[in-house]
Design brief:
Layout (H helix, E strand, L loop, with lengths): L5 E10 H5 L3 H25 L5 H23 L1 E11 L2 E7 L17 H10 L3 H5 L4 E7 L6 E6 L2 H11 L12 H30 L5 H25 L5 H4 L31 H4 L9 H11 L5 E8 L9 H11 L3 E6 L7 E8 L3 E2 L5 E10 L4 E11 L23 E10 L2 E11 L5 E9 L12 E8 L4 E7 L4 H12 L3 E7 L12 E2 L7 H4 L4 E5 L8 H14 L2 E5 L4 H6 L6 H8 L2 E3 L19 E3 L1 H4 L10 H10 L9 E4 L4 E6 L12 E8 L2 E6 L12 H15 L1 H4 L6 E5 L3 E3 L3 E8 L12 E6 L5 E8 L8 E7 L4 E9 L6 E10 L12 H10 L5 E3 L5 H11 L5 E5 L5 H28 L4
Parallel strand pairs: 3-4, 3-6, 6-7, 7-35, 9-15, 16-17, 16-19, 17-18, 19-20, 20-26, 28-34
Antiparallel strand pairs: 1-2, 2-36, 4-5, 8-10, 10-13, 11-12, 11-14, 14-15, 21-23, 22-24, 24-25, 25-26, 27-29, 29-32, 30-31, 30-33, 31-32, 33-34
Helix pairs in contact: 2-3, 3-8, 3-24, 7-8, 8-24, 11-12, 15-17
Amino acid sequence: MIGQLADRSEVVYEFMRARSLDGWWIWAVVVLGVVALLTLCVRFYRRDVVEISRPVGWTLMLLRVTAVIALVFFFFDLQRRTQRVVTRPSEVVVMVDTSQSMSLAGGIDPGSPSRVQLAESLLDDSPLLTQMRDEHRVSVYGFDAESEPTLWMSTATADQSSDTDSAAQPQPANGDETISATARRIAWFGGFAIAVGLLLALISLAIGATGRGQSVGWFLVTSASCLLIGGVSLGSVYCVQSPASLASILGLSGPSDADDTTEEPESTEDPSQGPSGVADWQTQVAAVGSESRIGDAIRTVLTDHEPSTLAGIVVMTDGQNNGGVDLGSATALARRAGVSVYPVGLGSSRPATNVRVVDLDAPKRVYPGDKFAVSAVLQGSGARPIEVEVQLLDGLDQTAGSDGNASTDGGDTAVDLPPNVIDSRRVTLPVDGTLSGLRFEMEPESVGRRRVAVRIVAPEGDTNVRDDAQAARYEVVSRKLRVMAVAGGPTREYRFVRNLLYRDNSVELDVWLQTGQPGMSQDADLVLTDFPETPEDLFEYDAIIMFDPDWRSFNAESLQLIERWLAEQAGGLILVAGPVYHPLFFRGRTDPRISTVRGFFPVDLATRGALLGGGRQGGDDAWPLDFTPDAQRAEFLWIDQDPTSSFQIWDEFDGVYDFVGVKGLKPGAKAYSRFSDPTTRVGDELPVFMASQFYGSGRTYFQASGEMWRLRQASDAYFDRYYTQLIRWASEGRLLRDSNRGVLLVDNSKAMVGDTIAIRAVLTDDQFEPLQVPKVPVKVLTPGGTVMDLDLTPTPGQPRPGTYGGRLIVREAGGYEIRLTLGDALAEQVLRQSVQVRLPTVELERPRRNDDALTSLADLTAGRFFPLDDPASTNTVADELVRVIRPQPQTTVLPGNTDQDFTRRRNAALMWLIATFLTFEWVTRRLHRLA
């Protein structure tokens, strides 16, 4: 449970005998007995002293009654103990929705702030957190697609802070410093009264000895009164101040006044942070999540916090729960726990007039003369269907110079757009949030880096013109792709891929069929009879694809050339394993070439059994591929028009029969799919079927069997797209090299908002030796035209120096460009990589605020719904929240042990009091010759 206890101690005095007297009749007997005892005592002494003076009689009666009362006091057994009072403070949890729908406009008026900006204003600009902290412990969470919300901050109540400050003060080492001035004055008064009483007693003895007994009675009664007052005063202080000695109580010993001073504790508060404890809410509150899991967030908070002290849960959201558990389940849980939920509805329940380009999909690389498609996803909202003009723009990429400084086109949109409109269409957008697709076809005009954009001409009343366009970068590559295909034998996979690449006009294909005979005909641009022996020959290739090669045909020099080609020349190596030569080579453990070849694989290969242990040859059943989350972002696996339809096809794919065994992934490698047969598990994981890794500046890709030809059963196009995109992806570093001093790579050129992009650079200095500097700065040009600075640092564990890495979190949709500058102003070289970031469509399908769900959530949990679509009303909403959420702290008393020092001092004080007064009585009676 999340919670902070306020712990304080308090001293309690109680009569222990009174706790054991149970029943009114017992109390009646005790009270009657005490009254009877005092009555008999008074009547006896009134008869006994009838012949002596009245002051002496009063004295004897006072002495005896005091002794009796002291015995009664002892009987009731006054005890002192220190008990702990533990207070669990009242808590309020504030949760902020950070899903993508929170980036939509918060109102229906043009220029309205986004919903996430309204939430930020409520946290930062309003007095909500500051006022709540006066009575509650406040925790602020952010939630989106994750099953558990993220804790941003947690503050104690103002009372807790005071208690903490007091606890931080230095505590006295012993009880001497705890004696207050009032207690010391009472002790001195008691001591003085005792001294006066003793003095008067001596005087009365002297007067009695002289025989002048007329005035001795008044001295006696005054002496007894002083002794009684002094004994009670000094004895009370002596018992209460049990840690201190009598001398310390009277101030006759102990520390000096200078020792009583205490030092103020140093403040631990960060002056850079506000009263809420968060320095920058604008950075913290960002709409990046692909889903909104309101139900999961509420359930987690109810689990992590004590419901008895949870005064309320404030949920800032638009109410669109599109992931995780149903909102009704979380509502029922909150209702059973007795916790009220206070939804703050962000956005408008009325349809605001707005059009937006949700997504833009364009290829990263095209070839001259090849037509390509640009796809856009559009969305509209409003009172009635909106007819708009959609334009396709294209031009050279001139948004930023080599210095990384962004330029703007002077328009109202946040996207820098190309200048030339090359096509336009009129479309009608539905206003229920439905996403509409639009596809343009175009042909590249010239070789080089270019930008393409889709722009909607804003209709009248559009609330947000900043989302009316999106742009993407692409490059027109003039040269053909040089590919070498190596096969241990003429397998189906090899023959289908060979024919595919040979027919592709953008590919120049050379093949080496290791079992081929001289003069054998092959569909290829060049038929090789051996592997290239010189760097000049090998380094001409952009990609090498190997189908179950016979590694025994490669000598050590050839393997070293492949390693150099990968690490230094950014080559792409695709390894398709097979059942013939793959196990034959790797079972020869003494071959020194094995360690080099193993390094090419992104997986650790198994070493025993058929197909290297754990593998399968000649399986009876086909098993579908189990794709990982990384596969969703791998563009080469998109074998249809979009990722959704592509993976529907993969799900319908019957699967594969065989695979070679692997132990697991290497560090830094990515698995895209696994063989789904549960009987083939290695430990807790299924065998890896597809994986990749960076190797220096190059890439290697592993496929556990050559069975992708089975995709042709569904369509030849799926097989063709898979291998065409795979080869181009693997050779991307070669095709997009901007400098002979290095290469800049990203692990994924297409991503979703909120994803983390891994950046990798393999660099050399001006002498072409591995670059060795502490960090390499790069500039990131965002879709909005701003420039971010990012540092790449040396990547540990790499076989080659000069390898640098970093990570970039993309927080808005559109095209990002990463630029790394090498050299000085006279010989400047710029490395570039682009990333296209898209929005998750599930978050944008329902743009309206869901008032029905939020009202039901509030009503069923005895809370209250607060709609908020105007920045001017944030303070009003904050004040109302503070007013309606009442504190409910929980206090627990933990009784402590009895103070034995107090008990001993109490008994000693009573003993001295009783003994003194009985002695005084005996002497007085003897002086006055009473029996």
